[in-house]
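Worked example 3. Consider a protein that binds acetyl coenzyme *A.
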Amino acid sequence: MLAGLGGWLPPRIVDNDELSRHLDTSDEWIRTRTGIGQRHVVDPGMSTVDMAVEAGRRALHSAGSRDVDALVLATATPDQICPASAPQVASRLGLGNIAAFDVNAVCSGFVYALATAAGLISAGAACSVLMVGADAFTTLLNPKDRGTVPIFGDGAGAVVLRAGEPDELGAMGPFDLHSDGDLAELLIVPAGGAKQKTSDNPEDHYFSMQGPAVFRHATARMAESSRTVMERAGWTVSDVDRFIGHQANIRILHATAKQLGLPADSLVVNIERTGNTSAASIPLAMVDAVNDGTLQAGDRVLVSAFGAGLTWGATALRWPDITPG
Ligand code: ACO
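Given these inputs, the predicted complex is written out as structure tokens:
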């Protein structure tokens, strides 16, 4: 069950007007096409591990206990390609020699890692798990690319899962997870990995995205996966109090809600102040929604994400009585 929640954003804020001074874009274009007004950005020297530690600390505080026996970090921007970053997060948090590993499902990372954490508990491999979604996605972007720079921001969000009863508030699941590697090229950093370590073309080291195609897949897949989860949970659309989708684009969220037949006021949206923070976007939206009273104990919550890979998935829970740390 969900027992703790926390989020952290780097202090530096870059608004649309500041971006428009360096890129051929405008506040008006970014707001109307994406719903984004500003994003938080890491300063040089600040890393994914730094952000994950801050969010993790807040989630442990929210849970009221530091007693966790595994840490799962969802990230596509580990501090180094090897090793995984999760062990460094666990050490920095003083959690001892607990199990710690990364899950890379890019913007679907939170839902994938949540399923992984819940699975560790179901399998008896852990009683309590700290799950952090953290990405310094701006470090992957070509500063000259107006197709990606306005969209992404940096940040971290975290939850603590504990063993519990299936009918308790905060009980996790069902889950639905999918991928389609045939479409990997739609969102990719071509160089830097084992296939092509370096490239003479500097652009190959940056994240490239075919935005309009991604938009269509994101909407269709998030809706499809949400329907599957509702069916497995025995919910109809009218049972859903809140829909928390990956904060990629406000138009994607509205289009997904429309496909599902969900009213627009059931959407949890914080993209205006964060941009797309990849694996951190859903827990950061949860923190804001609890703090502003949008999300309340007992609410039936549908969660869905979509990301590079391609990957997508969804889950559902009844919201527990927790205060973000
Ligand atoms: N400022 C001004 N104009 C722009 C900008 C910009 N930043 N970017 C593109 N344009 C122009 C284009 O050149 C084009 O001009 P044209 O009509 O003269 O050719 C016009 O705006 C429309 O461009 P599109 O790319 O078709 O714009 P679209 O409405 O599709 O919005 C966007 C682009 C915001 C990227 C959208 O496609 C989107 O959000 N896609 C999904 C992205 C996404 O979800 N990514 C995250 C996936 S998760 C992960 O794992 C990383």
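Take a moment to read the result before moving on. The pocket of acetyl coenzyme *A is lined by residues 25, 29, 33-34, 106-107, 146-147, 150-151, 187, 209, 211-212, 214-215, 218, 248-249, 252, 276, 278, 307-308 (CB under 6 Å). The mean pLDDT is 97.
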